[in-house]
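Example: Chorismate lyase.
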Amino acid sequence: MHRKRHLSASITRAGIVALPLLYSLTATAREPADPHWVDDPYSRMKAMAMLQSLNADLLSHPSATLTLERWCGTHHLARDAKVVARVVKGADKPLPEGAREQLAIGMDEPVRYRQVQLVCGGLVLSEADNWYVPSRLSEAMNQELDHSDTPFGKVVQALHFRRQTLAAELLWSPLPAGWDAGTPLPPATRHPLDIPAHVLQHRALLVSGDNHPFSLVVESYTANVLAMPSALLSPTP
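Written out as C-alpha cells, the predicted fold is:
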C-alpha cells in the first residue's frame, strides 16, 4: 500500500538507528531463512539496530510492500525476494477503542474489516488489520475489496488519499530500559534469544482528498523480519 510516512512518529531510543555495525558480515542466501539468534550483547545490539533501521525505512518510504521487498533481498530472507499480499479470508476483528472517533463516524455507521499478510518466500513479514468505512468508498471499490486480493491502496487510489501516522512503536526491545544511561546488558547465555511473534507496529488513518477519514490501519511486523541466515548473525573472527 502506498502511503506518505512521517519521521516524527514516536519511537523510543531512535538514536540507535545510527549504531555502526562493528563487524564485517558475510552470508549466502538460502530459504527458508534461519531465525536463530544467540542471546548475547552483540546480538541484542544488532537486533535493536536492525529494528530501528527497518522502522525508519518504513516511515520514510511510501510503500511498505517495496520496503519489505528490499529488506527481504538485502538480508537474504528468501531466494526470490518478492513480497506478495495475501488476503486472509473470513478474518474478523472488532474495531479498536476510539476508532469511531478517529474515523469521524457514528455508532451505527457500518464498518468492514480486511486482513492482509505481506509474505516473502513463505515468511509472513507483516499482518495488516484494516477497518474501513464502505459508505466513503464507491460501489466498485467495495465490490473489488469483497471479491479480490487487490491491495487496498490500489483499490482506493482514486480517492487521492494521504496517510496520517498515529503511532509507531517497538513491541519488543532487545535492550533493557536505561541501556543508554549505563544499565548493563544481560550477560551472554547459550540459549536462543527470545523474540516475540510481533516486534514492531504502525497505526495510521487513511484520509481522502476531501479530508474524510475512511480507513484505520494497524500494521504488525513479525519476528520473521529478523529471520536472516545464521551467517549474518555473528561477527566474523
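Helices lie at 41-60, 64-74, 99-103, 139-147, 152-155.
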